[in-house]
């Protein structure tokens, strides 16, 4: 026990000067975080910590959209985002998995990204992906989306 205490004291004594000499990095001038603005140019409050999808500059993170549940405007879950695809005409498609259990038996459909909405974080609920007017039945009735096979 005494040996362990001595070794611990020695380790702290050796590490303390090294930690004391660690330089503090200063932010690089001109690289400040961008200000979030709306279409009129007015500043918006910075996104909350629970905000997973939106960035401080008002952009959206694809990695956080993929895998998100999709809700309609009545707060009913209608599917989940399986992928984001850039179409040949460079428009963005949201690939939604509809129905099934744990992804088994789900139908895959594609919806233009501009039909989607991202609801802001509220309380302990983060952002939500919303497809207004959608129902699970309407999405299931859409043509299936298939990835190209090479």
TrEMBL record:
State the InterPro entries in the record.
PRC-brl_dom, PRC_barrel-like_sf
Tell me the ranges covered by the PRC-barrel domain, including all copies.
59-119
Question: Any signal peptide, and if so, which residues?
Answer: 1-20
Record keywords, A-Z: Signal
Quote the protein name from its UniProt record. Answer: PRC-barrel domain-containing protein
């Amino acid at each position: 026990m005494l040996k362990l205490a001595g070794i611990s004291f020695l380790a702290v004594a050796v590490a303390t000067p090294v930690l004391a000499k660690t330089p503090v990095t200063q932010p690089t001038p001109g690289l400040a975080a961008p200000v979030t603005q709306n279409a009129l140019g007015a500043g918006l409050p910075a996104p909350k910590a629970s905000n997973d999808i939106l960035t401080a500059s008002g952009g959206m993170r694809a990695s956080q959209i993929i895998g998100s549940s999709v809700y309609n405007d009545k707060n009913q879950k209608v599917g989940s985002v399986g992928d984001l695809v850039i179409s040949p005409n460079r428009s963005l498609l949201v690939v939604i998995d509809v129905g099934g259990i744990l992804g088994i038996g789900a139908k895959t459909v594609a919806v233009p990204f501009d039909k989607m909405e991202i609801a802001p974080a509220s309380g302990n609920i983060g952002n939500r992906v919303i497809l207004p007017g959608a129902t699970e039945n309407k999405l299931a009735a859409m043509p299936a989306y298939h990835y190209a096979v090479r």
